[in-house]
């Protein structure tokens, strides 16, 4: 998927589902999300729902956001506001995002998603499509897109 490690920690199954264009969803879900030196990147992805990210422990995480109007913004989620970190980050649905450990070996964050997360609402970044849509950010797009794996019948040499 997008990278890192996650586990769902909550889904609002005690409430009626919310109708969305993609179908009925929980009103809210949440996860814990861990980036480590083994998996330091959350690759480009887009969610239809709004997501609030909270930093809990570890090193800062840099988020790159590509907005529908073509803008690029960067936010560092971390524990030290004197260093320009923010403790929480709201990302509206429809904004492409990628994240990476800024320094260090791990960061634990949580995400609250409303309406609740559903895989049908997730799009993973495809390098050529994203670069065509955000040409001024093509290098950034390629840097944080999930590497494509060769098809098992492709016997060409891997790129080094």
Automatic annotation (TrEMBL):
Q: Which SUPFAM superfamilies match?
A: RmlC-like cupins
Q: Quote any Pfam family the record assigns.
A: Cupin_5
Residue ranges for the region (Disordered) are: 1-23
What is the designated name of this protein?
Answer: Cupin domain-containing protein
Q: Where is the DUF985 domain?
A: 2-124
The species this protein belongs to is: Streptomyces albipurpureus
What InterPro entries does the database record attribute to this sequence? Cupin_DUF985 (IPR009327), RmlC-like_jellyroll (IPR014710), RmlC_Cupin_sf (IPR011051), YML079W-like (IPR039935)
């Amino acid at each position: 998927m997008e990278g890192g490690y996650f586990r769902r920690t909550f889904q609002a199954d005690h409430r009626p589902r919310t109708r969305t264009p993609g179908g009925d969803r929980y009103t809210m879900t949440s996860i814990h999300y861990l980036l480590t030196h083994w998996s330091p990147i959350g690759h480009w992805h887009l969610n239809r729902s709004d997501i609030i990210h909270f930093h809990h422990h570890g090193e800062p995480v840099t988020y790159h956001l590509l907005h529908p109007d073509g803008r690029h913004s960067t936010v560092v989620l971390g524990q030290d506001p004197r260093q320009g970190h923010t403790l929480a980050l709201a990302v509206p649905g429809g904004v492409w995002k990628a994240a990476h450990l800024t320094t260090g070996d791990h960061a634990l964050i949580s995400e609250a998603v409303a309406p609740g997360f559903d895989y049908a609402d997730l799009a993973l970044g495809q390098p050529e499509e994203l670069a065509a849509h955000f040409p001024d950010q093509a290098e950034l797009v390629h840097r944080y897109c999930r590497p494509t794996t060769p098809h098992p019948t492709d016997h060409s040499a891997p790129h080094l």
